[in-house]
Amino acid sequence: MQQGTLMRKVKSKSWKKQRYFKLQEDCMTIWYQSKRTGKTESAFSISDVETVREGHQSEVLQSVAEEFPPERCFTIVFYGRRGNLDLIAGSAEEAQCWIQGLHQLIEPRSLPLTFALVSRTWIRDWFQKADKNKDGRMNFKEVQRLLKMMNVDMNEDHALRLFQDADKSESGTLEGEEFVLFYKALTQREEVLSLFQEFSEDGKKLTLLELVDFLRQEQLEDEGTEELAMELIDKYEPSETARARHVLSADGFLMYLCSPEGSIFNPQHRALWQDMSQPLCHYFISSSHNTYLIEDQIRGQSSIEGYIRALKRGCRCLEVDCWDGPNGEPMVYHGHTFTSKIPFREVVSTLGKYAFKVRHPSPGAGGRGWSSVGEDTCAEVSWSCWPPAEQDPRGQGPWRRWVAQGASLSPTPQELKHKILLKGKKIGRLEDTLDGPGDEAPDVSDDDNGAEAEEERRKTKVRGTQRGSALQKDKESLAQPLSDCVIYCKNVPFRGFQEARSHSRPSEISSLSEAKARKLIRDEGNEFVRHNTWQLTRIYPSGMRTDSSNYSPQEMWNVGCQIVALNFQTAGTEMDLCDGLFSQNGCCGYVLKPPFMRDEETLFNPSDPSSREGPGPITLTIQVISGQQLPKVANSKEGAIIDPLVRVEIYGVPADQAHQETKYIENNGFNPRWDETLQFQLHVPELALIRFVVEDYDKTSRNDFVGQFTLAFANIKPGYRHIHLLSKDGTSIPPSSLFVHIRITE
């Protein structure tokens, strides 16, 4: 890659400034400076870059498409909620040089990161930060400054002793491998070494049988344990000699515990592990609200970036609000507000590109405020922009087979792979679309005499008249081509559970506000659960949440609501729960509901845990042992060191909601040691989510967030486990972690 390039940084059609971009010698940092002033404006780490997009793949670059060809344009996309960087190179060759170079730098991270690789990267980064005079050496004063940067408040005599032990050349400075030695001494894990020696007869190695004992007794691995032990030695033992002897050293043991196999998250559940042949209504579905918005609900920016980010995060239900635009072109924005607008055509094109990065169907919600001309255009654009595999015109394929089988339940995610479902209004019913006129009024037998038969005939006539009136109204207000696009998710108003059971169909869906849903949960919890065993329900945020805040999705999941729409652009506990639930099952955006929430005759009510069929409560015991290399709080004062504590939060049915926390450790974010045990009783573990939160204690104000990790109880691996922390945006912050011991008992 070139070491410096003059390129245009673009923020809008009118804002294009020339900046000089340069990759630093560490090959991990890119900085850029103003061409005019020569002043460095900013820098970013390669580790912050998620991907690079070529051409006009952002709204900003699309706005200058007539001025600059796609061969010279590219977009750098960052993790989290940091804005993209849109650039225009001086030539196509320069653009390719940067695009290919960046891909080479970020692609290795697609491979599993070993503990050793993360540690080496971490060591190099800290060395370069602390080496103020850039001479490749570090004196003791620089080491002291480094310890402060690393969240370590260490006694000066002890620090000097570690420094002198590592200074093998006796030069008074550390360089190269000497600094590695210093770092290893600094990061010595006494709690892990103690555990290692507990199972090692000679205290220096674990034999194959000793490792098997550890895996069975502590990690509760009960199948293929000897094969697993051999695999772990081959994978994580750094010494070739030890590998040949089938033994595991202390270094190898630590590398295993820090690996995916040593994570609290069951690695087998990272892949697609659930049955995907159940009806669609039997799954929780990752869903977003007003997906096009990346800020607030009143004046915020609408952007295709909202769709890209949501889809890449595993979201499967997106919202597209369409309104009439100039020249009959529909526009997407939050109607009757001051949010910016994006062409519907761009949204559909983006969905075509990104919808099937995760290979499962993507139901979409929307369709408000447009005229019949706009509706015709929307239908035309949808068919032209989506490949044939994603279309199912007028209900062919699984739809016709499903209707022919009686339409008692919905199609399955497996059947719907590579298809996009539209949720919206529809003229008539799916049966009408496929087979002509719908059901006629039911016959009343000649044997039914008197008032009861007459009353039934009267009710049937009224219902038939109401359906005819509604059908005529739909025909007057809805374009037929758009109606034909809506196959399964016909939007219908919710008029109560009894009405729905009598007259609704699995091909229909109702949307409820969070307030309406809460009232139904409180008053008719069991009926709500039963309703969601056979029909989809979508929940959306209150209109009062103009700041794009979120409600708790857990209470909606507790009654089996499948499509619980959240504002994906807003970080916080609610999105942590969403990410925690859907991080399993291949991150496909579908999670199978527990059996008692798929039975139409279920007695389950989340307000009464005893209504759940199955075993009794379980006890979850968590020993919080230690933390490793916790990050500093954002915008903290120079030299400030955190006082970390760990809080464990349980989200589930009301009886299971709980939280407990450890004491705080003063002035140690590098290797704090808690050794505290927290215990919880779970009545409905199938619905429980566990959130581990690290905070910086402050006795005078609210604690500051440091990191978190959330997962479903079903994905927990018992034993000694590491928890790899995530930032507020849900991105990884290696090598920050917690070390815990998990026990689950009935």
UniProtKB/TrEMBL annotation:
- Protein name (database record): Phosphoinositide phospholipase C
This protein's source sits in the domain of life called: Eukaryota
Query: Could you tell me which residue ranges the PI-PLC Y-box domain spans?
Result: 482-598
Gene3D superfamilies from the entry? Answer: C2 domain, EF-hand, Phosphatidylinositol (PI) phosphodiesterase, Pleckstrin-homology domain (PH domain)/Phosphotyrosine-binding domain (PTB)
Q: Which reaction does it catalyse?
A: a 1,2-diacyl-sn-glycero-3-phospho-(1D-myo-inositol-4,5-bisphosphate) + H2O = 1D-myo-inositol 1,4,5-trisphosphate + a 1,2-diacyl-sn-glycerol + H(+); a 1,2-diacyl-sn-glycero-3-phospho-(1D-myo-inositol) + H2O = 1D-myo-inositol 1-phosphate + a 1,2-diacyl-sn-glycerol + H(+)
Which GO BP terms apply?
Answer: intracellular signal transduction; lipid catabolic process
Query: C2 domain: which residues?
Result: 598-727
Gene name per UniProt? Plcd4
